[in-house]
Amino acid sequence: MRLVTFAVGKKISIGVYDAEKGWIVDLVKAARAPADMIDFIALGKKGLALARAALKKAPKAARVPIKKARLLAPIPRPRRNIFCVGLNYQDHVREFQKSGFDQSGKSNAPEYPIFFTKMPTSVSGPGAVIPAHLDPTHSVDYEVELTVVIGRGGRDVKKADAFKHIYGYTIINDVTSRIQQKQYGQWFLGKSLDGFCPMGPWLVTADEIKDVTKLKLETRVNGELRQSNVVGDLLFDIPTLVETLAAGRTIEPGDLIATGTPIGVGIGFKPPKFLKKGDVVTLTIDDLGTLENKVG
Hints:
The chain is of the alpha+beta class. It has helices at 27-31, 37-42, 45-56, 90-98, 178-183, 188-191, 238-246, and strands at residues 2-8, 11-18, 23-26, 63-65, 70-71, 82-86, 114-118, 123-124, 140-141, 144-150, 154-155, 166-173, 176-177, 197-205, 216-221, 224-230, 250-251, 256-258, 280-285, 289-294. The strands form four sheets. Strands 1, 2, 3, 4, 5, 6, 7, 8, 10, 12, 14 and 18 form a twelve-stranded mixed β-sheet that branches.
């Protein structure tokens, strides 16, 4: 299922997008579901059963034509920082190390996953403007990332059990101020500016994805293909990331893990191709849809 957070006027709700019929089934109206996506995720299998039943027998009052709705990020306000993984595709490792923006001094791929976070206030939705004007260094870059949505919480989760804790997947654009990333010697500040985490267009439940490793990621800027790779090329696969994050740490329903970006980011070009006002950034991941945002 494609779960969405959407607005009609000033009213915000959650729903299931029925692509064949072209409407969203409002789960608050159709199934008395909570209006917050994280609260719905926490319902687990019970919530999914409610959503499936609502899809089959949605009353007319609960059907919202997609054209009349404004899609927000599926989780508009995460309750914790977004967990992100850096340097998780081999070709991007080389690209980053050759760019002049790498301050690590390393020449090889990382031995262990590199985690950093983005603030909840960085999240924006499909169609939202990327506020590049907030970056005084004018070095805004894009990064397409498959993002894991945690469903079942826990601690000390092992690789073999990792997928039991995954609720679904979405797309994140890990927008970055490259000069801030470089000058501070860490990644949190340059990646946490307001609006620097477009997310969406929806949350696709895990049962819809047969083999996540085969999904292709692509980025286009003004129609020009910049990034193209498959999830199977991750240096550290999804079970490894879940196990690493949950080792001695509790993961919770609604937590987000952005798994890393492939080669083709702006700093990989000479000179770098930073985003500028008016650019349109289009991210596509197989089976997850397309996330598009304009730069402002």
